[in-house]
Amino acid sequence: MNTIDVKEYDSLRISCEYQDNDGQPLSLDGIAIESTMQSLNNQYKHTLGIEMSDMALGQFVLTSDAERILPTLYKVDVSFLESSSGARITSETFNVNVKNAVTVPSGVSA
């Protein structure tokens, strides 16, 4: 399982691509995307935002507008819902490891 490391005050932006089984990009036209980041102990949960980069090439970015994400290990997956057929496909799960930061940004409560 892949793991992405970030620090607790970092801006979370994860670039993604919707692909077929051969690794070829698929269009996101008519596809709704949802993603959740949840701690392994299920104590913390964040619904991630979705920014479309290039719909034709299946490119999008998972984002979080949280000022601070509590340090722990999170599991993440992405759900794709095809509007015309109602078919739902979910990505493989990956981890986001949020580490403690030493520096607290100005204007942010620790």
Q: Could you explain the architecture of this structure?
A:
The chain has strands spanning 3-7, 12-17, 31-39, 45-47, 49-54, 59-64, 72-82, 88-90, 94-99. The mean pLDDT is 95. The protein is built from no helices and 9 strands. Strands 1, 3, 4, 7, 8 and 9 form a 6-stranded mixed sheet that branches. A 3-stranded antiparallel sheet has the order 2-6-5, with no helix packed on it. It has 110 residues and is mostly beta strands. It has a single domain, classed as Immunoglobulin-like. A hairpin with a 5-residue loop joins strand 7 (72-82) and strand 8.
- Tally of helical runs: 0
| Subunit organisation of the chains | single chain
- Helix fraction bin: under 10%
Count of domains: 1
CATH hierarchy class name: Mainly Beta
Radius of gyration: 15 Å
User: Could you name the ranges where pLDDT drops below 50 across 5 or more consecutive residues?
Assistant: none
Query: What can be said about the biggest beta sheet?
Result: 6 strands, mixed
Structural class: mainly beta
Label the CATH architecture: Sandwich
Average the pLDDT over all residues and give the rounded result: 95
- Shape field: elongated
> In percent, how much strand structure appears in the residues?
over 45%
Number of strands: 9
Task: Give the CATH topology.
Answer: Immunoglobulin-like
Order of helices and strands: EEEEEEEEE
| Distance, first to last CA | 31 Å
